[in-house]
Amino acid sequence: MIKKLIMAVVVFAASLSVAFNAHAQKFEQIAKTPQLGWNSWNTFACDVNEQMIREMADAMVSSGMKAAGYEYINIDDCWHGERDKNGFIQVDKKHFPSGMKALADYVHSKGLKLGIYSDAGNTTCAGRPGSRGHEYQDALTYASWGIDYVKYDWCDTQDINPKSAYATMRDAIHKAGRPMLFSICEWGDNKPWEWAQNVGHSWRTTGDIYPCWSCEHNHGSWSSFGVLPILDKQAGLRKYAGPGHWNDMDMMEVGNGMSEDEDRAHFSLWAIMASPLIAGNDLRTMSEATKKILTNKDMLAINQDKLGIQAMKWIDEGDIEIYVKPLEKGDYAVLFLNRADTSMNYSLDWNFHYLKDDISKHEIFFDKKKFTWRDIWNGGKGSTAEKLNLTMAAHSVVVLRLTPQ
Ligand code: GAL
Question: Alpha-carbon distance 81 to 129, whole Å?
Fold first, then answer.
């Protein structure tokens, strides 16, 4: 009798969950390759206004970033004013006097898309109104403004269940009816890679980035991380990434104070790891060197490859690591990373190496199969039939694109 009762409860619960999942949807035709864009937070923090956002859209076009594939202009925290008497969120009228709809129209007129930021809790990380209890209202409001992207943060959430909080906003966005990329930002605290594939289009895997190579920056109750600590926190996550659902290594710090070699390495690593590439510098005043890094078409093509496979760490020699990303048509991207503070020589005799990727089921015997290669950053050319000899500056990468011979 008790057994029967338990069975009935189990069957009922299962049917409920099927019913729940049948309604649960995210917009599917978004972020089939990692999203490319810009976000205000890394440079401007709370100091955002409509004029600056317009200028950033202009700069995305005039710099050639739009032509290179970047499409989102994202306003992070602090655009919010108060809720009105019916609970609808309003913009901060002092800094966004023309309103969000007018700003979205402007960004759209440039052929770009507009992103916005909210939080699953009562207040955002900077203390503005969060979406808790207002999810459906907020999604409707964003849709009416013409918003294309929602980054959804995790401050002030106390005892909220992350899976249902993010699913609620996903459902609210779907119900509002306007396709919006849903970017989950809970810093990897609740392992979103295990449950968010049908919830968001990307999820942050770590705490905030900081523009340094290997530091951890202590802010008291939390830390932010440099390029290497964020890279190292991706261990074990590649199997969760794929078209429509990416491991997000946070907005980039290219052009925000690191050396050119470090910036190039940072960009190349984020690209090969199939992370969203969201610039975080001031596009209006960036140097030629920064622009050249952000618009490197070959590196962007590696990130945007249709197979959507995140790179694997192939060889680990301590200071030197080699990452490999399988690409369309039998190509491979191979990234050599020098983590060390000094320059390093490194030689690779391909003939003695074998590559096996259990996740993408790729396998190469380099003694049998030969490739030509092209150096993505300096244009050099070669073949895997010959030994590769590299001299790598401190904190730098070499990236080769291999094509079957
Ligand atoms: C953090 C988030 C940052 C930024 C900030 C805004 O939680 O990780 O990327 O959005 O909040 O207050």
Answer: 8
**How far apart are the C-alpha atoms of 290 and 300, rounded to whole Å?**
14
Dihedral sign computed on CA atoms, order 296, 302, 308, 310: negative
Query: pLDDT by residue (tens digit) across 67-91?
Result: 999 999 999 999 999 999 999 999 9
Calculate mean pLDDT across residues 353-380: 96
CB of 185 sitting under 6 A from ligand 1:
yes
Atom 5 (ligand 1): residue with closest C-alpha? 125
Contact assessment for residue 280 and residue 383, using Cβ atoms and an 8 Å cutoff? no
Which DSSP symbol is given to 239? G
For residue 336 the two structure tokens come to 């050599």
Pocket test for ligand 1, best of 149, 208, 210, 222 (most atoms within 8 A of CB): 208
**Which is higher by pLDDT, 9 or 327?**
327
CA 364 – CA 350 distance, rounded (Å): 10
So what's the pLDDT on residue 19?
Answer: 41
Q: The pTM is what?
A: 0.94
Tell me the one-letter amino acid at 234. Answer: Q
- Whether ligand 1 lies within 6 angstroms of the CB of 119 is answered as no
Residue linked to tokens 């199939």: 274
